User: Which sequence fits this backbone?
């Protein structure tokens, strides 16, 4: 995410670190998927039938930020950690500004996202994975549950109802992504894997953030492990950064697309869905313009208050 080259629509070949990040995410996703199945009281997972086409080799892959959920998961997580005094007010102001920019611009800024990840890694270093998982459950209820796009949630449910597995694929920490997948009743999640030793975060990543080519590598690795045919699978994203992942599958969808992805998708006759416009937002109960305006105003007020207190 830090490289400005990722802002172009040109495909970038996977590096060794991308492959490592993708394989690590796939391995973590399979482990957490099995755990989620047990938590839901189901038997050991078997390959689900696909009643619509009779196809047992299909699955769906959903990007998270601005596709399934309004805003960026890592920023919401940072807000929750601040509330629990994991870091100081200065870092909160930075998180708030980055989140406001992301919501208003509707696209990912590599420098902002890299800064957020670096901050998150330094914040969680030395903490136990189990501690952050427990806190993550609380943060989901506080800041994320009400930001799920109903339209995208309905698309995911349609795949589930058809007997397909549904995975989140995100640059957010795999622990956060797994919590969201569990709460939405999805199969599991592919996310950025932070290194831990004896259950304690080291402050380093395994490979690189699950972004761009790394997402595609994760989906490829998971499909191979699960016996999926990517030509029969579907993928959903809002960002042109995910063109490598979308191009892997036979059924790509552009959801709330940024300008570059919208253009790219139209040129290739990919399906589009946009839940941000006033008309469509009204159908799913989301005050689009008002919500963005409120966020921007709230962020400005918070920063102004911070300056006065200083």
Assistant:
């Amino acid at each position: 995410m830090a490289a400005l080259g990722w802002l172009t629509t040109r495909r970038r070949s996977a590096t060794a670190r991308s492959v490592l990040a993708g394989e690590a995410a796939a391995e973590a996703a399979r482990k957490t998927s099995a755990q989620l199945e047990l938590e839901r009281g189901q038997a050991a997972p078997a390959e689900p039938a696909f009643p619509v086409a009779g196809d047992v080799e299909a699955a769906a892959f959903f990007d998270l930020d601005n596709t399934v959920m309004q805003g960026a998961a890592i920023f919401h997580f940072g807000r929750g950690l601040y509330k629990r005094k994991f870091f100081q007010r200065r870092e909160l102001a930075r998180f708030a500004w980055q989140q406001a920019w992301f919501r208003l611009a509707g696209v990912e800024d590599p420098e902002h996202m890299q800064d957020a990840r670096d901050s998150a890694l330094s914040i969680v270093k030395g903490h136990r994975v189990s501690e952050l998982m427990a806190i993550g459950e609380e943060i989901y209820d506080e800041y994320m549950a009400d930001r799920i796009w109903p339209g995208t949630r309905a698309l995911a449910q349609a795949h589930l109802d058809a007997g397909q597995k549904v995975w989140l694929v995100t640059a957010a920490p795999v622990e956060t992504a797994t919590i969201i997948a569990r709460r939405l009743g999805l199969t599991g999640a592919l996310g950025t894997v932070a290194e831990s030793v004896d259950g304690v975060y080291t402050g380093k990543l395994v490979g690189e953030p699950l972004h761009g080519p790394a997402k595609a590598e994760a989906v490829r690795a998971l499909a191979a492990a699960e016996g999926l045919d990517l030509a029969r699978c579907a993928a959903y994203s809002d960002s042109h950064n995910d063109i490598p992942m979308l191009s892997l599958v036979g059924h790509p969808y552009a959801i709330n697309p940024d300008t570059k992805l919208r253009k790219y998708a139209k040129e290739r006759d990919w399906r589009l869905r946009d839940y941000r416009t006033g008309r469509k937002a009204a159908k799913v109960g989301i005050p689009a313009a008002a919500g963005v305006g409120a966020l921007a105003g709230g962020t400005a007020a918070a920063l102004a208050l911070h300056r006065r207190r200083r």
Remarks:
- The mean pLDDT is 76.
